[in-house]
User: What shape does this take?
Amino acid sequence: MVVTRRTGGGSATAVSLVRGSTPIRAAGPGLWTNAAQRLGRDRLTLLAIFVLLALILLAVTADLLAEHFFQYGFTRQNLLDNYRMPETATPAFWLGSDDLGRSQVVRLLYGARISLSVGFGAALINLTIGLALGLAAGYFRGWFDDLVQFVVSTLNAIPSLFLLLIIAVLFTPGPLTLVVILGLLSWGGVTLFVRGQTLALREREFVVASRVVGGSSLRIMFSHILPNVMPLVMVLSAIDVGGLILTESALSFLGLGISPPTPSWGNMLTNASANLSRGPWLVYGPGAAILVTVLCLYLIGDGVRDALDPRLSRS
Amino acid sequence: MNRFVLRRLLQAVPTFFGITILTFIIMRLSPSDPVSLMVAGASDISAGDLAAIRAAYGLDQPLPVQYFSWLGHVLVGDFGQSFLFKRPVIQMIGAALPNTLVLATSALLVALAVGVPLGVVAARYRGTAVDQIIRVVGVVGHAIPTFWFGLLFILVLSVDLRLFPVGGMLTIGKDPLDIGDRLAHMVGPVLALSLGGIANYSRYMRTEILEVLGQDFVRTAYAKGLRTQRVLFVHALRNALLPLITALGGLLATLVSGAVVIEQVFAWPGMGRMTYEAARSKDYPIVMAVVVISSALLLISYVIRDVAYGLADPRVRLR
Assistant: This one.
């Protein structure tokens, strides 16, 4: 499907040329205004946006909260306080403590920081690559398109976790390298999507019109096609970030992503599974945190898509 | 039809070579040197000895020469020996692969058996609370980390309620042909693996059924007095199932990937677990073989999918 958006210059000129003296219809509310109105009525999506923003806020303020509210650093250990059951008396032990007496709730906060930044960082990389390659492949077609398609189908044919496993083991990544690796391996889906959209859009009248008045390839790609692809790419990116957070947590759970002592939700679960019999409560928090975050991102993706294109709406 | 199959097979060939090149390059880019790993633990190795080992394994040759010599062996199924176990890699994979395939196919069947009816029901009761609940189940199925689901399963059903074994493939000391025991071990991993598929299929089926329900033959079926149940499950379902074939190929890839984590959680002796351990001990030959073999299997499954689709819907062949 294609979201049509009023594009400036080119198409308007073309219309007025054809219609001659007929005045151009006054512009109605734009795509985003309409979408925002529809979104305002979608309670579930609004809730998801609210929860995600709250999570981001908690992640950003993790240092302040740990120091002033919980008064317990994320690396602080106290073997006398190990395996404390969750209790309401001490804020630091709201969710109990682990085998080294570290505060579970404080580590969850720092884990949010890691998970969210890895997810958004890697998505930024794969979206940039995907948009550039997809636009170019769909617009220029020919050998470049063949090459891009070949590389994507090769990457897609390798089970992704195997590939990540190998690369993670060979290069033992830190958080930053992990972001780059995840981003560099996950652009296939976005690229194919953008390519498909571009192939359809390049035949549309407003693109042809722009070519007629002498618009360059770069101008057509970036100021006519890109704005039309962008809304759906943003929807895709919410789902993309969710998927990346899941992948990061799985890798960290296997001990190949973020490595301790830096807490990530995945490696906290590794620790929990090693202490399953003595501290079963340690299992709930990190998993629930991943679930809620990814769920919010998926719901936002769904909701924004419905808002952008009511024809696709579920009800 | 034959030409369609042949063309599809030929398209897979360059992809296969692409995979071997990629695997080879990643392994050679790695900062850790295979020779020093091989002799790890042995003291008093002179530079001359190292050079001799290099020459013996052909590691002193230029990279393209090394690649083609490796490829030559791979094409006849020779993946060399494991550094760690000193056994032929192909033997080790032969022992582990069936266990993973058992998990993946069972998960696929469960996903179909649960996901398809859910989707049909959601379409039937479109816009009602039932539809909403199924939608939420679908999104949660996508968003839940499978390994966390596995841990919860172990914690609640295996440790607390003692309903299922905590891991492994069979109880040690029991008759290995005890089907009940084997099935009990499979419940957890299969359930965890099938969550994503259930979510996918219910969503997919809902869309497809809704699309089919708007068509003329459905109206005809209603008009001749058939019951809703029959129209839905016989007339609509059969036509909505067709596009489902395309969703099958991609799912296998997800299942094989997912098995890496799930096998770790449930101590299932499959290919994922083997790869994980080989990767951790930098046992290159095993890792390279697993990537090449699993990718080849995926490629074959994609070809089968396309051919099946071509058989079911002749219009596809024309493309």
Notes: Chain A touches chain B through 47 residues (CB under 8 Å). Chain A is about 70% helix and 0% strand. Confidence is low (pLDDT under 50) at residues 1-19 of chain A.
